[in-house]
What we know:
The complex is a heterodimer of chains A (167) and B (785). In chain A, 29% of the residues lie in helices and 14% in strands. With 167 residues, chain A is of the alpha+beta class. The termini of chain A are far apart. Chain B is an alpha+beta fold and 785 residues long. Mean pLDDT of chain B is 95; it is low at 6-17.
Amino acid sequence: MEVSFKVNGHAVKTEVEPRTTLSLCLRDNLKLTGTHVGCEHGVCGACTVIVDGEAVRSCLTLAVQVEGRSITTVEGLADGDALSPLQAAFRRHNALQCGFCTPGMLTTAHALLTDEPHASADRIREVLSGNLCRCTGYLPIVEAVLDARAAYGGPASDATTGHGAGR
Amino acid sequence: MNARLTDILPESAEAAAAGPYIGRSVQRVEDLRLLRGLGRYADDVMLPGMLHAAMLRSSVAHARLRGIDATAARAMPGVHAVITATEVTGGPGKAVPTVPLRLQPLPCMEPYRQPVIVQDRIRHVGEVLAIVVADTLALAEDAMEAIELDLEQLPAVADWKTSAADETLLFDGTTTNRGVTFTAKRGDADAAFAAAAHIQRERFTVQRQAPVTMEARGVVADWDAAGGRLVVYGAAKVPFFNRHASAQMLGMPDSAVDFIEGDTGGSFGARGEFYVEDFLVPFAARHVGRPVKWISDRREDLMTMAQSRECEADVEMAFAADGTILGVRGTAWCDLGAYPRTNGLIQPRNIPHFLTNAYRIEAVHVDSHVQFTNKGPAGTYRAPGRAETVMFCERLIERGAKAMGLDPVEVRRRNLVTSNDMPWHFATLTPSAPESSGLSEADSGDYLAAFERCLAEFDWQGKLALQGKVVDGLHHGIGVASFIEGGAAGPRENAKIELARDGSVTLYVGSTSVGQGLETSLGQIAADALGIPMSALTLLHGSTTYLHEGFGSYHSRSTVMGGSAIIDAAGKFKQAVREAAATYLECLPEQVMITGTEAKSPRGRSIGFAELAKNETIRVDGTFANHHHTWAYGAAAAHVAVDARTGDVSLLDYVVVEDVGRAINPLLLRGQLLGGTVQGLGGAFLEEMVYDAEGQMLTGTLADYLIPTATDFPRLRAVITEDFPSPINPIGAKGAGEGGTIVAPAVIVNAIANALGQYDLNPASLPLSPSKLWHMIDDARRAER
């Protein structure tokens, strides 16, 4: 069956089976391989994409469910060839090693900071606790997200302390 | 992967101006692709005409396979092939190939090697019985359901004690399930114990753990019938070894098979070793004449990625009255699961060998038995054997000191190896494969100095007031432990530098990236060695297409070994440039000065690399051989608060100090220390691969096998020191990447035991889950009443 939606600002139309997941549709049909599949049961969060502003597990979403919706994947976060402020903060803080969980971390953090630019370190940890990372130990990721808040209208923080302003 | 180091803009301009790259926190080259979703992992490889494979895996732990009927499956729409042992051997009477041992390839392991597909006997849940190749993965999985099996169930051997009883033998033609016994010996242990003022004896168990790389394994194989060649994607860690193993099994020359390294979603020692799928998927591609992709799902990954750490130990430590440690003695039993992985003997080897940890212990006699069972095959997982044995050692010291009325910190001070003891010799290990020669002695360092630094950073003296105290219902405790970390394993690594006709400088190296930032750290080393900006270099690594021989990333070796090979190649490259430039500059080669990408004569004439390259290609090979390991070392301290009502533990402060000789990139090194620490904490608190008495795996999802999340351990500090550069490589660096993992369980158990000092608890079994701790506390309280 055919499904139509928007990805990273572009309208797309593609053929899927009813059982096709959104993650598979993005990766196989649309060749957007930045969305990674880490567990296929909604625990690891690597496949997180933003659907109409909300962070969503694309492995637990069927492609047919996003008919008419607007989706942002990791490929849509950067500004052309330049890193977004959030991506640049990840790089500055060494918030990624193998990079496999990173797309899900970025989309989750982007959705969070878009809604809550003043999110505290504890709030950031709470939200990111649904995304598993095996390399970094999470500290550099939290530091990076705190550091990126200013770009979303939040406080300019001393990210190295790990303590941001509360909401 | 290849990295255009030009990607490091805009730092490159500053970097070039600021002198050497080594020692600076250069931001990663890798990040620009990985942050934008442009990485290329195994599942991102999509080839025209590609088919998909699904593995039919055993759902029982131990059985005879009497028959397998794939007739119905083969007839299903979209199915191209169902491959069983019969297709692999090509006919009856022949045995399927078995997985080789890469490290410690002891001859006594031959009967226990893993067949690449079940031929007659199933030995663990998850073992491959058949491969289905179909147009889509969904069709392959549908067809898998239609395969009929005729099984004769056999009694499962689900723990080392049943294995050691040898009532059910797991391998035909053997008389025991004990593969080998490693013995570490030094001095006269029995005499040391006879002379002891105090003997501390303990029994420990460590649980089975899973590496859980966030990217599960995957293989894509492309068969070129016309050229008789195979290209295999998804390689990691040791592509050259795996290419050779795969080619041998396929009956093809190495030169007809290429293993291509892409981005790799973590290794931790496990991913990238040779697994049966590294043969089966290429075999399937050749069999059907089309590209074939297989990507492990998470359940398969938990079942089949090498597990590690499961063991039990009965060990003792002899003390003189003043707290001097006289000797260690004891026995360990390691549950290796169904087969020895390519590197499966490393954990049982390290446990006896490094029970002495960072301490000056002259008398050693420790045995370690390798026991096979019907669980997932074990291999190495970050800090193999070391995390286990360091915990044994540190608990023996802690308990022994207290039993003698001594301060455990003082006992450590008295016994830690110092720079005066260097080179410190370790116990002798038997049996021992040649590559173990690197384990004979430590290169340099002062383990006591690192210990003192850790206590100071942690404010041990200040926090001591809280030791064992109850504040607001929480029991506070602090603990400390030391560690050593072997790295930079030989035998060698290779590099090649090429000045191409277009003037570009390309560097090839046998080291592999498993996500650690290798392109950046090696780029820093290369740029310094060549005296050119990182942005003027392209770095290519890992794949078998780049070099005649490479070794890869294991045993915390890739930066030191690859970096040292690069330094060798850079020296030769500069000499080749001088010789080539001398003709143009009309001077002697030794008079040529190289500044950046320009060669100059004493009289001020100059020629750029680009001009020089117009008429000739310059290509040099470098190598670095090493039969000794580097030994990074350090200590960690933790402050915990235990809620006795729930068994929940909060980690209030944690400091790890590691001396690495020379830090190439402190930003990346901090990442290794913090990330490694959290993995170690996962092992101490959360992670456990559970099998039942039938050998059935009960932890098949990430909701059952718990790895740390962002909320678990928010307060960690890492301190890097460079007091003792390694004397055995030109960089002075020591392999680092496992230290955080090694020491974490030891520190945590010490801190928790101290917090609960009033109950005199002796936590000796990992993980320390809330329920386990609560039961221990509850038992102690009942005993008090």
